[in-house]
Amino acid sequence: MTDQSGAVIPGATVVLTNPATQAAKTTTTNATGFYTFTELAPGNYKVKVTANGFEEEDFSDVAITAEQARGLDVKMTVGAAAQTVTVNGSLTPILNTTDAATSSTISAEDVTRLPAFGRDPYELLRTGVGITGDSARSGSGGAIALPNNTSQNQSNVGIFQTENQIQISASGQRVTSNTYEIDGVTVDSLLHGGSTIVTPSIESVDQITILASNYDATLGRSVGAHILTVTKSGTNDYHGSAFFQYDEPGLNAYQPYGGPTSTPGVFAPAIRDDLQQRDWAASVGGRIIRDKLFWFGSYEAVKSTLQSFSETYVPTPGWYAALAAARPSGLVASVIAKPSGKQWCGRCCRAHAARCRRNARRWARVSTLGRLQGRTGNICRTTM
Predict the structure, then answer these.
(1) Are residues 155 and 248 located together in one domain of the fold?
(2) How many domains, in total, are found in the chain?
(3) Does pTM surpass 0.85?
């Protein structure tokens, strides 16, 4: 906070207001003219600055991004307090001069509009500054790891992937060195490094900040990329979104090449993907008490059906007969050739069950009288 000559202004009052919730914070500049606001949700804010002997300065649409510091330098003009200078904050360049971190931000609009495999917002991380990744997939759709890495099935089941290891490298670091946070809470896997156990729905993401390098000590847990996600929240206005994807086998085209067969020059008939999938998601938020209490929720579900066929072998009576003929004196042949053994087994089991029932009644009487007579172990013990 300075005047037009560059001299600092201590003791100036700064009021920061979120127009969406009307939540306001107030602070004053210190002896060197600096002021600080912390724990701010992403959005556009209003800033009002007042000081004795200076005109009031008002800023609107001051953009705050997720997990990133932003400086707003104010030069105040000498004059009466009744005079006000209004500045459009959107015209003030967002230039981070507070640290040297290499970072980028993915907004809610980017997450909604850009295509992402399996509707996984983390698939867009490779668009960040200082991030390397190719999102390679195999012919079956499975993830392929970056060179010298082992993939933990990134996004193979969308946001429901419990060990979601996005194959990205920050400034040449290993994939296992990446770390993830959602609303300030670490969601890293304790089993596989560089994996997250919670992947947010696209409908719930407000902003994703990707720090590639040169972050400060508050984020010094890992040397790889820091993925900091902030989710949406409720405001005074009711808002929401909805999504539905319909995939039906009848809408899929045939693949003209069905594959080779055992006959040279003859190919299998054309095939068609039989995947039947329904994917729906929604979010809604609003107020409970205006300017005081808010709520927000999101939901996403996937229903997928895919028919698959495989060959297996089932033993036939002829196969049993051939097995017995191959080794007539073997143990397998004796079991196969003596069906009477089943009757003997049945009689044995029935006798064993009756013995168990008698022992159970005997033990029940002993337990009732409280005399165990030194017996231990199972109540049914027989020798076959």
Answers:
(1) no
(2) 4
(3) no
